[in-house]
Amino acid sequence: MAQSQAWVKRYLKAFCKGFFVAVPVAVTFLDRVACVARVEGASMQPSLNPGGSQSSDVVLLNHWKVRNFEVHRGDIVSLVSPKNPEQKIIKRVIALEGDIVRDVRKLKRM
């Protein structure tokens, strides 16, 4: 009986050591380096979520590139929605600082 109690104590001690190391490392990684997100909706079709409302894609969001301002035209970025701050949206970058963007639909009407 003493041996089984010693084994349980060793197991709990090893679990706690691993837990208290793994959780801060995982939280720091997800906050600073990258995290996984689910894409729902049709705004990024056909690149993401080609099945529409029946399915959703999973993407890896790279926090490191955004933090170092390494965003280029064509990149897909995630940001907080200006209409609903509790929601994140995913969009493709079409222009960078200093670029002039014209609405092609308005130019075709003229």
Automatic annotation (TrEMBL):
Per the record, membrane topology reads: Single-pass membrane protein
Is the keyword Mitochondrion in the record? yes
Top class in the EC scheme: hydrolase
| GO biological process terms on file | protein processing involved in protein targeting to mitochondrion; signal peptide processing
Q: Where in the cell is it found?
A: Mitochondrion inner membrane
Record function comment: Catalyzes the removal of transit peptides required for the targeting of proteins from the mitochondrial matrix, across the inner membrane, into the inter-membrane space. Known to process the nuclear encoded protein DIABLO.
Identification of the protein by name? Mitochondrial inner membrane protease subunit
